[in-house]
Design goal:
globular; Glutaconate Coenzyme A-transferase; 14 strands
């Protein structure tokens, strides 16, 4: 894919599109991987005041490279402070301080329910995944949830094999009927499109297609019937600044991890 200025990849479009909605006054609970990349691009571009929180208890972290895990020393080294995990979840998360929980998924259904536990039957799975960690609590207690992941029929399924993190359940007012007062998934950003839940049904609806993406491509990469908004927009392509920040971040990360690996091998 290309803009009038610079070529970019679908992954770069996804990360940059996911970074854009974040604001300087957000307090964001960050998942490892794609969510971490998006949140740090936002911090390094238009949202310098954003407070990034990771599950290990680091608050206000400003990593120079992307962490390998929540236990990466880069997070603690660059944080304003580090608190215990119980304090992180009980006071910060369950206390309502988190404006955005940013999660990834292995499986996702049309209502934003996330599976990161098993593929197949729980007792005899085809694949056993890393599990939920703190994601179930993040999904229920953050004021709203953003999700980012690549589209594929294997990942975008009509029904998740396991409810790791509750989205909108069966749709409609299911969250409210269960006593949840937070918004739940409000935004889904993929390598092909931007989705938002329908105000009534809560089923994800495509509101924007990334440059060059067709509806045929969409149909080939999702395991459910796709709903489109009445006026589907085209996602603005990455700017030169956004691409430079993302690529520099990825380059620093690659160099740092390769150096650490070489040192460990000595």
């Amino acid at each position: 894919m290309t803009s009038t200025a610079t070529a970019f990849t679908p992954d770069e479009m996804m990360t940059i599109a996911a970074a854009r909605p974040l604001k300087s006054d957000d307090v964001c609970f960050v998942g490892i991987g794609a969510p971490s990349a998006a949140c740090n691009v936002a911090r390094l571009t238009h949202a310098p005041g954003i407070t990034l929180i990771y599950e290990s208890g680091t608050i206000g972290t400003r990593p120079d490279v992307l962490p390998l895990s929540i236990g990466d020393g880069e997070l603690c080294d660059t944080a304003l402070t580090t608190v215990s995990v119980p304090e992180m979840f009980r006071y910060w998360l369950q206390g309502g301080w988190i404006t955005v929980g940013f999660l990834g998924a292995a499986q996702l259904d049309p209502f934003g329910n996330i599976n990161t536990t098993v593929v197949g039957d729980y007792a005899n799975p085809k694949v056993r995944l890393p599990g939920g960690g703190g994601a179930p609590e993040i999904a229920s207690a953050s004021r709203e949830i953003y999700i980012t992941m690549k589209q594929s029929k294997r990942g975008f399924v009509e029904k998740v094999d396991f409810f790791t993190s509750f989205g909108h359940g069966e749709g409609g007012d299911h969250r409210q009927r269960l006593g949840m007062t937070t918004r739940g998934p409000s935004l889904l950003i993929t390598d092909l499109a931007i989705w938002k839940p329908d105000p009534e049904t809560k089923r994800f609806t495509v509101v924007s297609l990334h440059p060059g993406v067709t509806r045929a491509q969409m149909a080939d990469s999702v395991g459910w019937d796709i709903a489109y908004a009445a006026d589907v927009e085209e996602t603005p392509p990455p700017t030169a600044e956004e691409l430079k920040v993302l690529r520099d971040l990825k380059a620093r990360t690659k160099a740092a991890h390769e150096a650490a690996g070489a040192k460990a091998a000595q």
